[in-house]
Design goal:
By secondary structure, the protein is of the alpha/beta class. The chain is 34% helix and 29% strand. Strands 6-7-8-3-9-10 form a 6-stranded mixed sheet, with helices on both faces.
Length: 308
Amino acid sequence: MATDAIIDVRNLTKRFGDLTAVDQISFSVGAGEIFAFLGPNGSGKSTTIRMLCGILRPTSGTGRVLGFDIEREGEKIKRGIGYMSQRFSLYEDLTVWENLEFYAGIYNVPRTRRRERLEELVAMAGLTGRERQLAGQLSGGWQQRLALGCAFVHQPRLLFLDEPTAGVDPISRQEFWTLIHDLTRQGVTIFVTTHYLDEAEHANRIGMIHLGKLRAAATPAELKRMVHGRLLNIACDAPFEAVAILQTMPEVRNVTFQGNDVHALLTDEGAEETIRNSLRQGGVVVHDVQPITPSLEDVFVSLIAGAE
């Protein structure tokens, strides 16, 4: 285990009967890092986070969080971390202040320090003026701010955020990530699961998981360099028909929709004109074809296609 690693796992596996939810994954997370665990629903993200929190016992493999063994020292891990679930799990019939006060009691924040700590959290989460508002009356974005405040009430060194912005509007998601970065400047390590590719760009490093297997773990820039081949953005009048045609071409490694355009990863550097001609012959009007830098979505599609 690296001496500065807050999280370190080796060959971590979890099986439920015949289903392997997490399959021999290995990675580490350094102190003060934002590590985004990226994957679609059902990929093994939440199962992994539950093992790391000492809630779920692994089938095999090893892991340490904050220096504690995830299998034998789960209670010690729970005392040293903050956890925020993907569903709003606070008390909707309590006010903002009452929710914070309740969690301060659970985490044994000293009474002499409690009021000052709650005022700090209200300010941090931008909830000033909403202290007496019922949590159930808050919008989704404000609820997530409150949930983050409750998870951080005892000032843990490590925060686990499980799909923290699921169902939240884009502006609230951006504001929430601003809060996350503010916490890392205080030295907090963040482990966040998400299926939003644009959110993962905010992380220092990204782990991409699919069907229980960790496909890659690197910085966003390093991941984008893993895409080998020429990537084209194709603007045309019939993207669905274009994808169907491109999928039959040996020169195309994989193809995806990107808004109204199509991204095609080529195996042959000189195949661009062949693609134009094939689309035109198929009745697709091509407006523009441009080489582009891969996005994280392109990276993820490429990794999955390579694995399959």
